[in-house]
Amino acid sequence: MDIIDTAAHLIFGKYVRRHIHRYEDQRVLIRKAGLGMLIEQYIAQTYFFSLLIALIAGFIGLFAGYYLLGNVRPHMLGVGTEYPWIWSNFHILLSIGLAAIFSIIASSLTYYIFMSIPEVQANVRSTLINQSLPHTTAYLYAMSHGGGMNLIDIMKSLAQNYHIYGSAAEEVGFIVKDMEYYGTDLLQAIDRAGQRTPSKKFKDFLDGLTSIVTSGGDVTSYLKAKNDQYRLTATKEQKIFFETLSVLAEVYISAFVAGPLFLITILVVLGLVNSSSASILNLIVYMIIPIGTVIFLLLLNSLTNDNPKIPDFYVVEKKLNAFSHVELKEGEPDDENKRKKMYYYTKIIKFVDKVTNPLALFTNNPSYILFITVPASLIYLFYAINAYINVANIIYINSFNVLTVSIVDDQIFIALIILLVPYIIFDELRSYRVKQIESNIPDFLNNLASINEAGILLVDAIVMSMQLKIGILHSEVKRLVNDISWGTKLDDALKKFEFRIRTEMTRRIINLIIKANEATSDLKSVLTIAAHDADIQRQLKKERNAEMFVYVFIIYISFMVFLFIVYILAAYFLPAMPASTEGTISGLSLSTTFDLEKYTLLFFHAAMIQGFCSGLVAGKMGSGSIHSGYKHSIMMMSIAYLLFTFFI
Questions:
Q1: Cβ neighbour number for residue 352 with a 10 Å cutoff
Q2: C-alpha distances in angstroms, 316 versus 73, 281, 320, 324?
Q3: What is the per-residue pLDDT for 230?
Q4: What does the pLDDT look like over 469-502, one tens digit per residue?
Q5: Confidence of residue 324 (pLDDT cuts 50, 70, 90)
Q6: By CB neighbour count within 10 A (0-12 exposed, 13-18 middle, 19+ buried), where does 642 fall?
Q7: How many other CB atoms sit within 10 Å of the CB of residue 98?
Q8: Within a domain: residue 465?
Q9: How far separated are the first and last CA of the chain, in Å rounded?
Q10: Which of 270, 268, 259 is nearest to 567 (CA)?
Q11: Could you tell me if residue 86 is inside a domain?
Q12: Helices (H), ranges, 253-288
């Protein structure tokens, strides 16, 4: 990018600086989008890429005009013969004109796209900030209510954990940077953040915080009120989301289930008379349904992408440097070799532990099973279809017939089962474990708060909580207690506890407990707030799962209707048609190229493709992730496969 920046600056830098006043709105959007670029730099790059794309498009247009439109003559375009120079140079003029049109269109589109990127990015950041704002205010309120830290220290603590609390915490981090690096005071830094943020909700929060700090009001009460407000708003927004999802479910069923089914039925009837409708059927089954499903999934992803990636590593935040001034004596000559042996021995022990406990490895990371199932499915597929097609020679594809394709279809489906079923099993085990943990976290925190309220230290409260009912958390809490009993600091033991559980809810709560334990002795209030926050999240998830189950059920019903109609067409309607023109009804001539086996195979493919696509949509609607839809896809495809295999 340095080369592009330099070239853009040399070509367009002076022009952009001379007319920079035209781009004040873009300057604001670039700041809100967080692109980290100067307005002069961004506009110069926009012009540079527009010019580059214009040159490429012009070359394509010149090539198209010169080689593809060589047979076009002036009289075809209404140009008379009274201009001889047009006759002699018509081919060149046509190529230049086409190149100019291509260049103008391509450069205009590029310029429009680049000028729209900051606004789109700002809207995305605004959505992310609004989603994480309830968790951010909960952290601020809990730390403020616990006492022991002022507002600036709480903001610094939150900024250090922006990867846990999301984009709203990142915005708070900008306030901290303004104070630490630029020497601004708190009020001025908050005012700058309000001007910079793309979220109106976060700006309103900062404006209210400014008023409270200026007037000397109770910051803790304000944070509590805002936290309650955002929780209530999240509940209302979830209801609106359910309504939106209901509309989208109806759109999907109408456009990608009922619509193709209606067209397939009509085209099958037309195919009895005119064989050209078969190509349209192929287009619907093999192109429109899959591509339409991909577009719909992208739309759903823009609405339901609320599952941020959890880091897969444990970070050591501090290094031991208390004795850095002490000079060390040289050790034995073989000390370095011993250290290397210890290092490799540790690696070997970790590897052996993972190999000897594969179920735990795959349950914690279901995607690891794909390293086994992908080669296994490919090897099976290779040897299964090698008897029917020579995969090393592409010419054999021309010898495909319906029987060969049917056999290959069976092997592909079996290979797909080998690929996905183990992943589905381990993913479901992990999902069940996460749900059980998150359902027990609020009760665990309430127990800790009750025990701590009696004057018992947090460490002893954790030990005593093992005697209470905490479900699946019992084994993990026992390991936590063992770590503490072996001399591990409470903070480090809690971090290991969080690392083993690895859920989004526990990341925020454990981090809050660690920070509160470092800063205040009033842990009871912090634990109560954390328990209340976790309980609200649990209730929202329960409500969401209940609502999503309805849409998953609707997807299943729509697929069953699709499968039933396709089965009726393949099993009863088409076989009842006359096999030749001798049995036709008077006035109705059947197509002589009508192939019953080909149409039956096409219906089978339609059912399988629709089952796979509907399963992905059901998973995205039900759980918010596409990979959770694999089980629905395999279920629907299995039903379709068994129906066509044993009943047709």
A1: 10
A2: 75, 59, 11, 18
A3: 86
A4: 777 888 888 888 888 888 888 888 888 888 877 7
A5: low
A6: exposed
A7: 20
A8: no
A9: 60
A10: 268
A11: yes
A12: 259-271, 277-283
558 within 8 A of 614, measured Cβ to Cβ: yes
Domain count, the chain: 2
Buried-exposed string 505-524: b where 16+ CB fall within 10 A, e elsewhere: bbbbbbbbbbbbbebbeebb
Using CA atoms, how far apart are residues 570 and 485, in angstroms rounded to an integer? 69
- Helices assigned H by DSSP within 454-472: 458-465
- Which pTM does this prediction carry? 0.74
What pLDDT score does 313 carry? 47
Give residue 475's identity as a one-letter amino acid code: S
DSSP character at residue 300: H
Report which of residues 618 and 514 the model is more confident about. Answer: 618
At 397, the pLDDT band (50, 70, 90 cuts) reads very low
Confidence of residue 273 (pLDDT cuts 50, 70, 90): low
Residues 378, 379, 385, 386, CA torsion sign: positive
Between CA 596 and CA 585 the distance in angstroms is: 19
End-of-domain residue from the set 78, 106, 126? 126
Average pLDDT, the chain: 80
Predicted local confidence at residue 525, as pLDDT: 78
Identify the domain containing residue 342 by its residue range: 337-364
Q: What is the DSSP letter of 572?
A: I
Q: What is the DSSP letter of 255?
A: I
Does a structural domain hold residue 7? yes
Query: Quick check: is 643 in a domain?
Result: no
pLDDT at 217 over 80: yes
Residue at token pair 């699709």: 562
